[in-house]
Amino acid sequence: EAQLVQSGGGLVRPGESLRLSCSASGFNFGSYKMSWVRQAPGKGLEWVSSITESAVSTFYADSVKGRFTISRDNSKIALFLQMNSLTADDTAVYFCARRSYSRGCIFFDYWGQGALVVVSS
Amino acid sequence: DIQMTQSPSSLSASVGDIITISCRASRSISDSLNWYQQKQGNPPKLLIYAASTLQSGVPSRFSGSASGTDFTLTINSLQPEDFATYYCEQTFRTPPTFGVGTKVEI
Question: Which residue out of A43, A108, A109, A113 would a mutagenesis test of the B interface target, given it has the greatest number of B Cβ atoms within 10 Å?
Fold first, then answer.
């Protein structure tokens, strides 16, 4: 069965950087779009970024555009999120998620366990 | 961005109840509507995609329906393990957007 295992996360000061990783197994990683979704403490879900199968195209929420970079290494079966210029508003649990498509609809069918990022001085 | 208006934000129910959760899209999204269940400290779990298709392994007491821009998640015969927060999500247009969530409590 598909599995996504995340690493990274932690406490950083405003303006600092952090890199999240997501390791995949149990499916053909290079055949799926992948995404990051975050959840601020006690809040709802917010899509952050997506990347196509071969990393040709990337997409970002306006709230992170220009500061975050999504990437992937299909040979290492891994997804990354480089986060720069972090602010308190970026404090959240970050989930990696697999994007699938069926019946004309896109959905997130597998999720990582989440990584907590706290931005505080 | 497409806004998803989800209601109620919370509801109290009992084991065996039938409950419904609604989501309304700010514009037409065809059937590009998904429902997720999230329990405290865990990632979301896909329940239904394409408005009414049950994800593999999800109990049949969960169902979804659509009428125009209005979407409904129904849980028949609520079970103890169903107490959680539920989110709708549209994927018709980027960015995908989520409803605010509905917390189902005892």
Answer: A108
Sequence-separated (6 or more) residues with CB below 8 Å from residue B61: B75, B76, B77, B78, B79, B82
User: Left (φ > 0), alpha (ψ -120 to 50) or beta: where does A90 sit?
Assistant: alpha
Integer-rounded Cα radius of gyration of chain A: 14
Residue range A62-97, pLDDT digits in tens: 999 999 999 999 999 999 999 999 999 999 999 999
Q: Which residue of A has its CA nearest to B29?
A: A105
Residue A89 C-alpha, separation from nearest chain B C-alpha, in angstroms: 18
Distance from C-alpha of A115 to C-alpha of A38, rounded to nearest angstrom: 9
Sign of CA dihedral A105, A110, A112, A114: positive
